[in-house]
Amino acid sequence: MWPCITIFRPLLLKLRSRYAFSKDTQLTLVSPSKLIFRPSASCTGVGKKWTRPTGYDTGLKTYNSLTKQKEPLVLAQEGIATWYSCGPTVYDHAHLGHACSYVRFDIIQRILSRVFGINVIHVMVITDIDDKIIRRALEKSISPTILARMYEEEFKNDMLALKVLPPAVYLRVTENIPQIVAFIEGIIRNEHAYATKQGDVYFDIGSIGDRYGKLMGAGDAAGEPEKRDSRDFALWKASKPQEPSWESPWGKGRPGWHIECSTIASSVFGSQLDIHSGGVDLAFPHHENEIAQCEAYHQCGQWGNYFLHSGHLHLKGSAEKMSKSLNNYITIKDFLESYSTNEFRMFCLLTKYRSAIDYSDASLNEARSSLATITAFTHDAQAYMRGQLQCQAVQEGALWERLAETKANVVRALADDFDTPRVVNAIMSLVSHGNRHLQPIAKPDRSPRSPAVFGAFLTYIREVFEVLGVDLLDRKEPHSVDSSGTLENVVEQLARFRSDVRAFALSVEDMPGEPAHASPRPHSEKLPLLKACDTLRKDLASIGVHIRVRMYSFCQFCCKTFLKRK
User: What role does it play (predicted)?
Assistant: First the structure.
């Protein structure tokens, strides 16, 4: 039962703003000057204290940046995890620092879905309007939209090359401006934001009191004359010359950085989110401000239940993270010219996802060596199973026991904050154990053979790494037509060209002496064009590209009407 709390009417609005009580909080008038409220079930958490969610306990534990310790992973719905992640700001090439974060969270999502049967509903935002995008577009003398689309496409291709599973949907900021404006209006209505005479809108940190700073503390920021508090941050920026802008109640402008994620995550998942992820550099101020915005808008005490942050990628011997601003980065494309996708993923698996990771030839060679050891064991085990490798009698019972023990250890490690280094160690120990039983002998001693247990070893090892996104068979998957946005755009232009040619070929002429009610016919010399269009449509269909065409009679009608108007 919630405790009843007596409050005085003049304090009600202050308490509402400070603790962000839900709109449906129950209020009872007990005297002309007193009220009793009971927080609704949807409003959890007061102040900075984290409240364990109610719902489905997965039996897993994960490190929660909100509490700085491992917590039981409890989901709102059984078998479903709502997951939001900050995507790229598409103004330049993605580098290995980005890749490391996305691959690590891809591994966790694969574990949740393929080991523990949880359906992960993952949404990612593409920041396609930002100060950096605008500056780079001006440098290149191209439209910010074109620049953003170009690097967005490159990012998606990089993720495909790294075998990162795409989210359920990518959502662009520029395609959600009306929703962002409405979200800001909601925060203003709840008295947690204010507009300035210049047309900017700021979040009012003072309005939420000590509830700000759940992740990293209250922080500090440079003061500006129009701000009420130096820490207040922009929700809406008034337009400037040569910048894209949109209409709003405060004048033309564009969204601030933090508001886009709060809006888009809320538009999909509402007032409660299971998991939010990103690089540790995003914890403050970005994620901190997201939390403040969402809890102010939804008037709830705990919007996101778990915040997962991946550690930085450092160049060996440097304390600095890999970063574009520091000009110490390696692009994903350049990296994949020297190393494989499997090697990079193994490199990520060898450290905990929330730990910093050193990039060096030595660390990548360790990943390569681990894969080579597994490949060599696979070759020897298969040779033994074919009868091509003669060994002494193996202790089959001990091998089956070791396999069962490894399986249990792997599940325990994955349930304990997705501990992939322990998983890799368990698998490598299993490989080492198997290798000790595959020592060749000079002369066959007719001892009994045990091929089945080695088949079980190989199947299990392959399955574990497949779950983690490492393809030990190293299959080359051909890119489908719709996997490349560039090819998709080419097909779109080709279809438009075909449509224009077909429309021209269907243009008609009125034959002298024909009755008015006769069906119009295209010029006879244009019939080969029609035939070529039909051939193109059939050829594209054979490779999976289907062009929907209007009914022939409808095309004739439109063409005839157009010609008569002329």
Answer: Mitochondrial cysteine-specific aminoacyl-tRNA synthetase that catalyzes the ATP-dependent ligation of cysteine to tRNA(Cys).
| Cβ–Cβ under 8 Å, residues 226 and 201 | no
The DSSP code for 416 is B
Cα 313 to Cα 316: distance, rounded to the nearest angstrom: 9
Q: Is 428 exposed, middle or buried (0-12, 13-18, 19+ CB in 10 A)?
A: middle
**Crossing angle for the helix pair 257-269 and 288-298, nearest 10 degrees?**
50
CATH fold label, 370-468: Four Helix Bundle (Hemerythrin (Met), subunit A) (1.20.120)
* Domain boundaries of the chain, sorted by first residue: 56-358, 370-468, 484-506+523-565
**46 CB-near residues (< 8 Å, 6+ apart):** 19, 301
Phi-psi map region of 68: left, alpha, beta (phi>0 left; psi -120 to 50 alpha): left
310, β-bridge pairs: 279
Pairing of strands 357-359, 313-315: parallel
Is residue 534 within 8 A of residue 552, CB to CB? The reply is: no
Task: Determine if the pTM surpasses 0.70.
Answer: yes
CATH code given to domain 56-358: 3.40.50.620
- Using CA of residue 293, residue 299, residue 301, residue 305, what is the dihedral sign? negative
> pLDDT digit string (tens) for 259-313?
999 999 999 999 999 999 999 999 999 999 999 999 999 999 999 999 999 999 9
Q: Is 285 helix (H, G, I), strand (E, B) or coil?
A: helix
d(CA 311, CA 320): 12
